[in-house]
Amino acid sequence: MLEQKPRILTGDTPTGRLHLGHYVGSVENRVAMQDQYDCYFIIANVHAFTSPERMENPAGIRESVLEIATDYLAAGIDPAKSTIFIQSEIPAIAELTFFFAMLIPFNRLMRNPTLNEEIRDKGLGDKYSFGFPMYAVGQCADILAFRPELVPVGEDQLPHLELCREVARRFDIIYNKVDPHTEDKDFVKAGGVFPVIQPKLGRVKRLVGIGAPSPETGQLLKMSKSLNNAIFLSDDPDTIKKKVMSMYTDPNRKKATDPGETDPGKNPLWAFHETFNPDTAWVASTREKYKAGQVGDVECKRKLVDVLVALIDPIRQRRLQYEKDPAEVLKVLKAGTARANAVAEETLRLAKQAMKQDYFPRTLSL
């Protein structure tokens, strides 16, 4: 009998095409893990409705679902090895979300720093919908419906994963009578339905965008489509060149008297070189020259253009092939969603059994 691969679950909310922040935060990890893991990748379209602008544009959400699926395939996610699926087509996730909501005190939910950062960064004030904080509970269901061992994520998602770990422990302790002193790695072995999942961070915890720092905090902002500071996996070479050549660099670096103020690590140009440039000797030597004022922005930006085009253009070319056959992308999504439903329904059956709410068996099909 073949040994079963350990399972991973991760994914994205469809807010448009994927960018380099997604790539180093998680996507390259997903591609690399396909042979060793049973991979499930969720396109979380329900969560897209938490944004007032996107909620009023459901056609845009639908378009983004297909855009992200196309980006996944272009980046190297192989549907023969991995399962790509659409969140809204997995009814078990919605049912688990409701059950899990009973396990989380509201004040605990609102202490989630990622949630509060989103409320602040999006200027929501107290005008957000009830569904906005609810999506943090939904993320727990997105993950636990598939009972994975690992969840590849960016650093900003760690608070959501900690909430998910709390839910798994609490469910197993209440409904499966797992000893509260059980080590996290042993919860399933001790009779729990849900594993206490572990995060797997990408090699870059938080990729900055190409724009200027926040005027409020002075900190560089993470790459984001909504902040208009992103380089996309579908950008052509001319677009990449235009974006890189307009990339923010510290205008005061030559005037600084404090050596810390000239630190290229606070400069998007060098954050990108250190992340994407495989010529580490060039990066190390040129960084010191830059710090000493012996080399300028233009030369370093031109080098970065070459580096990023070499990375992105093969992905873009594969994407163009998938764009010619959108029916193939839908076919991949349908097959993946059918596989995902089988796993999620089994999880829901086990959860309801533990909760003594397993009245009638059911089957789903696409």
Task: Write up what this structure looks like.
By secondary structure, the chain is mainly alpha-helical. 50% of the residues lie in helices and 7% in strands. The chain contains 14 helices and five strands. The strands form two sheets. A three-stranded parallel beta sheet has the order 1-2-3. A two-stranded parallel sheet has the order 4-5. Strand 1 (7-12), helix 1 and strand 2 (38-43) form a beta-alpha-beta unit. Helix 5 packs across helix 14 (326-354).
Short structural description:
This protein is mainly alpha-helical. It has helices spanning 20-33, 45-48, 52-55, 58-75, 91-101, 106-109, 113-121, 131-144, 158-175, 237-245, 268-276, 280-291, 297-323, 326-354, and strands spanning 7-12, 38-43, 82-86, 150-153, 198-201.
Explain the layout of strands and helices.
Layout: E1 7-12, H1 20-33, E2 38-43, H2 45-48, H3 52-55, H4 58-75, E3 82-86, H5 91-101, H6 106-109, H7 113-121, H8 131-144, E4 150-153, H9 158-175, E5 198-201, H10 237-245, H11 268-276, H12 280-291, H13 297-323, H14 326-354
Parallel strand pairs: 1-2, 2-3, 4-5
Key features of this structure:
366 residues; two-stranded parallel sheet; mainly alpha; 3-stranded parallel sheet
- Helix content, binned percent: 40-55%
Helix-strand category: mainly alpha
Give Rg in angstroms: 22 Å
Order of helices and strands: EHEHHHEHHHHEHEHHHHH
Largest sheet geometry? 3 strands, parallel
Main β-sheet, spatial strand arrangement: 1-2-3
**What's the number of extended β-strand segments?**
5
- Enumerate how many helices there are, as a single number: 14
Q: Ranges with pLDDT <50 over ≥5 residues?
A: 255-262
Tell me the strand percentage band: 5-15%
- Mean pLDDT, all residues: 90
Shape designation: globular
Q: What is the terminal-to-terminal distance?
A: 29 Å
